[in-house]
Amino acid sequence: MTRVAVFGTGAWGTAFSLVVGDAGADVRLWGRRAELVDAINAKRENPDHLPGVELPPLTATCDAGEALEGSELVVFAVPSQRLRENLVGWAPLIPREAVLLSLMKGVELGTAKRMSEVIRGVADVAEQRVAVLSGPNLAPEIAQRQPAASVIACTDETVAARIQAVCHTPYFRPYTNTDVVGTELGGAVKNVIALAVGMAHGMGFGDNAKASLITRGLAETTRLGAALGADPFTFSGLAGLGDLVATCWSPLSRNRTFGEQLGRGQQIAEMLADTRQVVEGVKSCESILELARRNEVDMPIVEHVVAVVHDGMAPLDMLRNLMSRAAKPERYGH
Questions:
Q1: 195 and 167 co-located in one domain
Q2: Are residues 165 and 193 in the same domain?
Q3: Which of 5, 146, 260, 328 has its CA 20 to 30 A from that of 72?
Q4: CA–CA gap between residue 332 and residue 313 (Å, rounded)
């Protein structure tokens, strides 16, 4: 039986623990809050993030050493902007041969590094030991064991296949590829595009506007990926188009819902104070824009989301500005 350590008791970390537990793994789930860890152990459910969902047998703990002891696969599902500070303490405890898997969908502020780059740098491990998982994976649906598919990317195909076997269940179908860069970028940028789509919906615009934002957002993601050496095919797959559609269209998406509230005139500070969960697009939009500028890639939707979220631009002005940009061929900048 494979022993798996999952760091993060949010909705996605808990749902993934359910997946690998259902697949037969011995799961250790790490959380920072003792009261939540105790509740998970006592009730076999996560009352804060997935209430009413029965979890398979697993052990929750606040002790990173206990979670990591004997682990063959170490999974990170913490907020992307908190990974580095946490990983500094966890890294010395990680078993030497363990494979490290990122479920996080963000780009680090300040460094503009992808999460796999942060893991490799802080934990000082070779790229062949680091994989990423991304796709249309709305945690509440997976927790209900509804059908879903995803992509596991690692530069070593055999490592990706090993992880695939650990999390393949009748309802969760993982595919593999070797494009870590493209898989991570698809997961990170789609959160920002979902904020824009949510704003359009909140302002009462219809499906034409939302579909246009999704399609042009995919074009922006693909341009950035091409500049960083990603495989363009990745963006037409589960980690690209699949994740983008789910996140932009579903009311279960935190980023889409946050954008919708912005479009209806709610204030960002109040919304951030009210939400119990991290909205990755709000955190990562600036770092994604910085990454684009460093690589001279034009990403107007991302740029305008940053202007709304961080610089006070009104959502209606964002859409007006995007619509009034100079006309170009569809493949401009490709």
A1: no
A2: no
A3: 146
A4: 26
Q: Can you tell me the distance from the alpha carbon of 206 to that of 204, in angstroms, rounded to the nearest whole number? A: 7
Using an 8 Å Cβ cutoff, are 108 and 118 in contact? yes
Q: What is the pLDDT of residues 60-105, one digit of tens each?
A: 999 999 999 999 999 999 999 999 999 999 999 999 999 999 999 9
**Does residue 99 contact residue 72 with C-beta atoms inside 8 Å?**
yes
Clarify whether 43 is annotated catalytic: no
131 shares a domain with 27? yes
| 277 and 192 fall within a common domain | yes
Report the DSSP pairing between strands 59-61 and 148-153. Answer: unpaired
315 vs 107: CA distance, rounded Å: 23
CATH number of the domain where residue 26 is located: 3.40.50.720
What is the amino acid identity at position 70? G
The answer on 277 and 315 residing in a single domain is: yes
Residues in Cβ contact with 154 at an 8 Å cutoff, skipping those fewer than 6 apart? 128, 130, 131, 132, 160, 163, 176, 178, 180
Do 281 and 106 contact (CB within 8 A), yes or no? no
Closest by CA to 77, choosing from 19, 17, 22, 117, is: 17
Number of independent structural domains in the chain: 2
Same domain, 186 and 162: no
Listed in sequence order, the residues at least 6 apart from 23 whose beta carbon sits closer than 8 Å to its beta carbon are 166, 167, 168, 169, 172
Average pLDDT over residues 272-297: 88
Q: Report the amino acid identity of residue 145.
A: R
Please report, for the domain that includes residue 272, its CATH number.
1.10.1040.10
Distance of CA 288 to CAs 113, 137, 184, 305, Å? 9, 21, 12, 11
Residue pair 129/69 in contact (Cβ under 8 Å)? The answer is no
**Owning domain of residue 212:** 181-323
Which of 113, 190, 210, 283 is the catalytic position? 190
